[in-house]
Amino acid sequence: MDMTLREIGNTYGVSRRAVQGYEKAGLVAASGKNERGYLLYNEPLQDRIRQIRLFQQMGFNIKEIKNLIDAPGDVLKAVLERQTEKLMKQKENTEILIAKIYELIEKL
Q1: 96 and 50 belong to one structural domain
Q2: DSSP letter at 91?
Q3: Which of 35, 42, 48, 100 has the most CB atoms at less than 10 Å from its CB?
Q4: Do 75 and 61 reside in the same domain of the chain?
């Protein structure tokens, strides 16, 4: 089922500006317009928007996503493995900082 920009935002938690940014970057383009002139996005585009948003949540910027979104599986797998390692390191650093905060709190 085709969705308007507002429906996309309400359903997937992606802002209108974000989708417009995806369009500006050439990542998506509306599949048509409804009788009121609102842009419509078909199911494959909705899936693509969800995938872009997921990549952003993983820490990739739009430029990186442009290179990843249509990359072959082996390329994508390698990039995702590197990103996983990066996120794991960030998690470790965050856990160390949290432990230090608790130490400081105990001293107060």
Answers
A1: no
A2: H
A3: 48
A4: no
| Tens of pLDDT, residues 55-108 | 999 999 999 999 999 999 999 999 999 999 999 999 999 999 999 999 999 999
Sign of the dihedral through C-alpha 76, 77, 81, 84: positive
Residue 18: which H helix or E strand, with range? helix 16-24
CA-CA distances (angstroms) from residue 85 to 2, 11, 38, 73? Answer: 37, 31, 42, 18
C-alpha–C-alpha distance, residues 62 and 23, integer Å: 11
How far apart, in Å, are the Cα atoms of 15 and each of 22, 71, 100? 11, 25, 36
Strand partners, 41: 3
38, two tokens: 């609102």
In this structure, the answer to whether residues 22 and 65 fall within a common structural domain is yes
Q: Lay out the sheet containing 39-41: strands in order across.
A: 3-4, 39-41, 32-33
Segment 19-40 shows an average pLDDT of 93
Question: How many whole angstroms separate alpha carbon 68 and alpha carbon 54?
Answer: 12
